[in-house]
Design the sequence.
């Protein structure tokens, strides 16, 4: 026979996963913005194009990470 987890354990595990997702998204986007700022400073660009590109890339990566993590949630 298969053992099923109690609803309380599933809920706790799911809340931990969701909390982790929020921190991962924040860290990824923050690091992408800081990397873009560094590139703009290094190449001395006036329009901050590297910051914009890195931010958009960071958001895309964080969305991809969220979708991967959501597959781990048990209902």
Sequence:
């Amino acid at each position: 026979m298969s053992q099923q987890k109690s609803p309380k354990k599933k809920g706790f595990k799911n809340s931990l996963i969701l909390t982790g997702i929020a921190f991962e998204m924040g860290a990824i986007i923050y690091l992408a913005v800081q990397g873009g700022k560094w590139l703009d400073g290094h190449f001395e660009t006036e329009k901050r194009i590297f910051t914009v590109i890195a931010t958009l890339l960071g958001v895309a990566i964080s969305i991809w990470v969220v979708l991967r993590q959501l597959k781990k949630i048990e209902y």
In short: Residues 7-43 form the longest helix (37 residues). Residues 36 and 51 are 4 Å apart (CA to CA). The mean pLDDT is 90. Helices lie at 7-43, 49-70.
